[in-house]
Amino acid sequence: xxxxxxxxxxxxxxxxxxxxAGDPITDQPLLLLTTTxxxxxxxxxxxxxxxxxxxxxxxxxxxxxxxKHPDWYHNLAANPEVTVEVGAEIYEAFATVATGxxxxxxxxxxxxxxxxxxxxxxxxASRQIPVIALEPLEG
Length: 139
Known about the structure:
33% of the residues lie in helices and 32% in strands. By secondary structure, it is of the alpha+beta class. The chain has one domain (3-136): Pnp Oxidase, Chain A (Roll). It has a six-stranded antiparallel barrel with strand order 1-2-3-6-5-4. A hairpin with a 2-residue loop joins strand 4 and strand 5. The radius of gyration is 15 Å and the shape is globular.
């Protein structure tokens, strides 16, 4: 099964279970992130692991350690207003890429909780894996 197929099935399962109380569908906390295509302008939804950080959620553009950033990262860098689906909630958010000391602090906490991200960074070689904060837009 290719990655697009896998993601499509994961999105369907996530949305089907949204209103059910039951077992999570993955071992890690999962959200659906909908971005606007940087070139196409089309809305695209991607299932992503997240890490809670106070009133915002962090997502990690590791791309499993690939040498390039994932497509969704390029989309939110171009269009930082995104839609987040987490649990039963759906809301608009603003995506901010962490930099400098803030990124280092967040990255340390992420790797402490989820050590496999350190392996992703090793595989990514010279590409620094971005950490993105998703902050709800005030309605």
